[in-house]
Every structure is written in C-alpha cells, then in structure tokens.
TrEMBL record:
<feature type="domain" description="GP-PDE">
    <location>
        <begin position="1"/>
        <end position="228"/>
    </location>
</feature>
<dbReference type="GO" id="GO:0008081">
    <property type="term" value="F:phosphoric diester hydrolase activity"/>
</dbReference>
<dbReference type="Pfam" id="PF03009">
    <property type="entry name" value="GDPD"/>
</dbReference>
<dbReference type="InterPro" id="IPR030395">
    <property type="entry name" value="GP_PDE_dom"/>
</dbReference>
<dbReference type="InterPro" id="IPR017946">
    <property type="entry name" value="PLC-like_Pdiesterase_TIM-brl"/>
</dbReference>
<dbReference type="GO" id="GO:0006629">
    <property type="term" value="P:lipid metabolic process"/>
</dbReference>
<protein>
    <submittedName>
        <fullName>Cytoplasmic glycerophosphodiester phosphodiesterase</fullName>
    </submittedName>
</protein>
C-alpha cells in the first residue's frame, strides 16, 4: 500500500483519525493528485516525473497499490475527514484551489514554498469558495519565526504570522532545534497552532504535546490516536 493512496486514507479513517495529511502534484492533465514525490522512481522504479504522466496512466499504475485519488475525489470520498494538503508543485495550485473551494471549512493548505500556497488560495477565491481554507506557513516563514521568536521581537513575529492559522515544523533541522519554547509562545500569542512532523514514537508524541504542540503529523495514525486520545 503506497502512501497517499486511497487505501491508506481509508485505513486512517477507519482507525478513527479526524485529520489526514496528504500531498498534491499535478499530472500531465493538470489534475491535482495525491502524490508526494516529484517522480515515480521511489514507488514504482519509473524515473518519469509525475507531471509527464497522465492521470489515467497513473491511476492504472496505482491500481495494485491502494488506488490513486485526485484531491477532489478524496474530499468527496471522505466527507468526515479534515485534510492537511501540502501543495508540492505550482502546477497543482489551480486544481487544488478548485477542489478545496467547496470544502474550505475542513482543509488546511501548506507548502514549503509559500508561493504555491498563495496560488492555491487565489484559485479557491476564483472558484467562489464560501470559506477559505486555513493556512500554514512555508519554509521561509518558519525560519524567520524561529529567529524572531528567539530574539523576542514580538512585532516581527506578529507580522510573520499574520494571515496564518498554523506553523508546521520538524522538531529539529540538523543541529538546530526548531520546536522551541520561544517559537511555541510566539505562535500561541498570535492564535496560531504549532504542528510537529513527522513523529512516530509515542513518547515523543506525549512530550511534544506536553511542551505545547497542538498536533503531530505521523505515519502511524492508529498509534497516535491511542497515544493522544485523552488530549
């Protein structure tokens, strides 16, 4: 079963997850599909970029590995789930915006590249979204927030966090501890949640939540639910 597959999302739903994290790239047809990598190499041993493969062909290749979903199909197929959508490629932004427009109340958009997120939000506006999706800041916003919060530059942190609903961060980046008390305080002071990725160890989940994390991104939804259910 591949990550981002229909079967993997169904398994998380069956385990009782309320939120799922997924990734979007555009196929050769411009469809936003749930797919993490830039190419098919890791999953299928095929060096072609996702952007050069049609949606129909990708669906055939995924058929034996849990099934391919477009973002629009996923949102329709799992109406109770809330989706955290990482927009991996600018080419996916237009279709992401169209797909999330009717579902803004249960979608959070993020991307390492803030331009992808902004483009998706703009597309949702053009698609007449009644409610815009929530937003999480990208790599540059997180780096600036880590620095500004460490220096206790409150006005700067407020500007960085303006318009954001969450920041999604690794616990560490090499030797640098990204998840730090100063960053958590700065985010919470602005009403912004802090989510930490990717955490698969129950003890780390408990420790991070105790230290102020509002959520963790994990490969083990079943384990996280058992570990964090009281929270």
């Amino acid at each position: 079963m591949f990550d981002n597959s229909a079967l993997s999302i169904a398994a998380a739903d069956a385990a009782g997850a309320e939120y799922v994290e997924t990734d979007c790239r555009a196929t050769a047809d411009g469809d936003a599909v749930l797919f993490h990598d830039e190419t098919l190499q890791r999953l299928l041993g095929d060096p072609r970029p996702v952007a050069e493969v049609t949606t129909a062909e990708l669906a055939r290749l995924f058929a034996a590995h849990g099934g391919l979903l477009t973002l629009a199909e996923a949102l329709d197929a799992f109406p109770r789930l809330r989706f955290n959508v990482d927009v991996k490629a600018r080419a996916a932004a237009e279709d992401v915006g169209r797909a999330v427009a009717p579902h803004g109340h249960r979608v959070l958009l993020t991307s390492f590249d803030d331009r992808n997120r902004h483009a998706s939000l703009a597309a949702a506006v053009r698609a007449d979204a009644d409610v815009l999706p929530a937003s999480s800041g990208g790599r540059n916003a997180i780096a600036m927030l880590r620095l500004a919060s460490a220096l206790r530059l409150r006005s700067w942190t407020r500007r960085i966090l303006q318009g954001l609903d969450a920041v999604q961060i690794p616990e560490r980046f090499g030797p640098l501890r990204v998840f730090a008390p100063s960053l958590v305080r700065a985010a919470h002071d602005s009403g912004v949640e802090v989510h930490v990725w990717t955490v698969n160890d129950p003890e780390r989940m408990r420790a991070l939540v105790a230290a102020g994390a509002d959520g963790v991104v994990t490969d083990r939804a079943d384990l996280a639910i058992r570990t964090l259910a009281p929270h």
